[in-house]
Amino acid sequence: MSDRFGANRNGGQRRGGTNRGKRRGGSGGARTVAIRNTAPVAREPVLLPPVLTVAELADQLEATPIEVIRELMKAGIMANINQQIDYATANRVAVELGWETIEQVPEVVQKATADFESRRTEAASDPNAVTRPPVVTIMGHVDHGKTKLLDAIRASNVAEGEAGGITQHIGAYQVEIQGKKITFLDTPGHEAFTAMRARGAQATDIAILVVAADDGVMPTTREAIAHIQSANVPMIVAINKIDLAAANPDRVMQQLSELNVMPEEWGGDVPVVQVSARERLGLDDLLEMILLVAEVNELKANPYKPASGVVIEARIDRNRGPVATVLVQSGTLNVRDIVVAGESWGRVKAMFDDRGKRLRRAEPSTPVEILGLLEPPQAGDVFQSFETEKEAKDLVEQRVAQRRAEAVVGDRAVKLTELYSQIQSGQTAELRIILKADVMGSLQAIQTSLLKLNDEGASGVMVSIPYAGTGAISESDVALAVATQSIIVGFNVRPDVAGKRAADRDDVDIRFYNIIYNLLDEVKAAMRGLLAPEFKDVTDGYAEVRETFKLPSGDMVAGMYVLDGKLARNSRARVLRSGTVLFEGGVKSLRRFKDDVREVQAGYECGLGLDGFNDLQIGDQIESYHREEIARA
Ligand code: GDP
Fold first, then answer.
1. Whose CA is closest to atom 10 on ligand 1?
2. Chain segment 528-586, per-residue pLDDT in tens
3. 309 by DSSP, 3-state: which?
4. How far is the CA of 304 from the centre of ligand 1 (A)?
5. Each residue of 88-122: pLDDT tens digit?
6. Longest distance between any two alpha carbons in the chain, whole Å
7. Ligand 1 pocket: which of 137, 141, 143 to mutate (most atoms <8 Å of CB)?
8. Ligand 1 nearest atom to the CA of residue 276, by list position
9. Half-sphere exposure of 287 (CA within 13 A, CB side)
C-alpha cells in the first residue's frame, strides 16, 4: 500500500513527453509552489504517506479541515473529513496551500526502484549491452479481462508458432512479433508486481493497464495506476471489451485524463490501444505498441557476463524437486551454472522455457524454469550465478545469518492483539490487512466492508488492504505481510505448508474466519482495544490423502501420508482442497496397519476416518490442529 504513489505522476513515460507530473525529486527538480501575498517563507517540505485522511492532511498542512475540503471541492472532489485521499490528491491540495510535499515510500520499495533504474543506466552505458525484450505486466480491475488478454495474446502466438503449441504455466511467457520478443509475466494484477517490490525486486519494464470499455475506471484501476507510477514504469492503456455494445472508450479516456493519465491522442503521453480479448481484436496493435514503447525506452542488457535476475515463482514438484521460474535480467544463464536465489543455492541441472522445451542458455529478459536448487526460493528473490560453489554457499550463509540477526532487532509483523496499545502509544494509526478468501465474491464483499470501517472513523485507526486475493495463504502472502507490517486474514482458506512454516518463522498473525460478521466484529473490536479472550488454533501437522476406501458401513477411510508434524487422534482435522477448507471436525479413527494409534509422525503412512465427512479425495490435505487459549498481550 505504501508504495502507491511515487515521483512521477505520468506513469513514468520516458518518451520525451511533458514533465507535467514531476512533483518531487532531488533538490534540482522543478516544483510548483503557489505564491501567496506574503513573502514566501522557507519551510520544510511535508512528508505525506501514500494514503491519508482529510483530517490528517489538514493537520499536516496546519490548515483547518474545512480549508482542505474547500480545496478538494475546487478540484471537483467531494470529501468528508474522515475520507481517505491518495498522495496525488493530497499533494494537489498542499501545493494550493503553499506547501511542498514529499511522498513517504518504504525504503525497500525505494530501493527496488532505485536498483532497477541504476541497472538501466548501467546498461545504457555498457558497450557490451544489446537490446533485450521488454518485460510486461498486465494490471487492472478485477473482471476487466486481464487473464483473458494474457491468454489471447499467448494463444494467437502459439497458433502461429511451433507445432503442437503445448504451453506450460511457469509464471511468465514469451511471444514473438515481427521477429522481436516480448516477455509477459502471467500473474495478472498487482500480486506479482507488489509482492516483488515489497521484497525489493522489480522486473517490469512496461505495464499494461486494462480497463473494460463498458465498466470504466474502477477502484483497482486507480490503485494499479498508483503502483505503476510509483515504480516509474511506462504505461500503456488497453481499453478492453470493445466488442460490447455498452463499450464507451471515450468515457474511459475521459476518466483516465481526470487521473492525470493523459491519452496520446488527446495530447498526452500515454498510449491507448483498443482491444477485445474475447474477439481477439487489436492484439497486434497492442503488441506493436509494446515494441514501440520498448524501443523508445532503449531496453538493454549485457548478455556477456554471469546471469542475474529475479525469481518469478517457485515450488516443490513431487517428481522434480525444487523448481523455480526465474527471469534473467542481465548476463546469460547456462545449464550447469551455480546460482544463488535468496537463501537457496544449487547447480542448474536443466532449464525449460514456457513451452516445456529444454534450453541450454537463457539470455536477458528470458523467463526459464530451472531445476537444481536445493530449496525453493521465494518469488521476488534476486538470483545470481557464481563461479564456484564456495562463493554461492558463503553468500547463502551470510544471508541466513543476516536475516536471523535482523529478526532479533528489526521490525516484526504486527499482531491484532497489540494493535490498540500501539495506537495508544502513537505508534500506528493504520491496521494493514492482507486478505485471502476462497472465492472472489466473498473477497470483494469483505474488502468493501473492511474499508467501510474507515468511513465510520470512530477509533481513529484506518484499515488498509495492501493485498487481497483468492486461494491458500502462501509464503509470498506471509512475506508481503512482513514487508508491509500487516496481519493476514483468511476467509475460508488456510495456509499451505510453506505458508504456515513462513508464518511461524516470521511470527505473522494469521486470523481465520468463516463468517463475515465475525471477521468485521473482531477487526472493529481490535481497533477499539476490545478484543475478547482469544483462542488460537495450533497446527499439529499436515497429511495428504493418497488412497481412499469405502467401508461396508458406508464410512470412508483414507490412506494418508503425513507430510509435516503429526496427525493426532485427539486433535481436530480440517480438510483442505486447493487451500480451501471443506470440512472441520473430529477424527473418528486413526490406524497404522491394523492398530489404533494416538498419533502418526511425518514420513509415515496411516489410515484415517473422519467424523461426519465421507467425501475425501486423493490429493486432499488434512490439517491436524487443536485449540489453545492464549494469554492476551
Ligand atoms: P480478470 O479478472 O481481469 O483477469 O478478467 P477475466 O480475464 O477473468 O475476464 C472477466 C470476464 O470478462 C470473463 O467472463 C471474460 O470472458 C470477459 N471478457 C474478457 N475480455 C473480454 C472481451 O474482450 N470482451 C467481452 N465481451 N468479454 C470479455
1. 143
2. 765 544 567 788 999 999 999 888 888 889 999 999 899 999 899 999 887 788 888 89
3. strand
4. 41
5. 788 889 988 988 887 776 565 666 667 777 777 77
6. 92
7. 143
8. 23
9. 25
Q: Which atom of ligand 1 is nearest to the CA of 151?
A: 7
Q: Which of 498, 503, 328, 510 is nearest to 417 (CA)?
A: 510
Please give the distance of CA 613 from its chain centroid, rounded to a whole number: 35
Instruction: Select from 314, 279, 310, 146 the least CA-distant residue to 215.
Output: 146
Question: Which residue's CA lies nearest to atom 18 of ligand 1?
Answer: 145
- List the Cα angle 403/407/409 in 5-degree steps: 120
Give the position, in ligand 1's atom list, of the atom nearest the Cα of 144.
3
Provide residues with CB under 6 Å of ligand 1.
140, 142-148, 188, 240-241, 243-244, 276-278
Mean pLDDT of 263-284: 95
Closest-lying ligand 1 atom to the alpha carbon of residue 279: 23
Contact yes or no for 539/625 (Cβ under 8 A) = yes
- Tell me the CA–centroid distance for residue 526 and ligand 1, in Å: 38
Judge contact between 156 and 283, C-beta under 8 A: yes
Q: Which three cell numbers stand for residue 246?
A: 455498452
Strands, E, within 155-295: which ranges?
172-177, 180-185, 206-212, 235-240, 272-274
Residue nearest to atom 17 of ligand 1 (CA): 145
Q: Are 624 and 540 in contact (CB under 8 A)?
A: yes
Q: Which three cell numbers stand for residue 585?
A: 471436525
**What is the three-class DSSP state of 314?**
strand
- Kindly tell me if the per-residue pLDDT of 433 is higher than 80: yes
Res 629 pLDDT > 50: yes
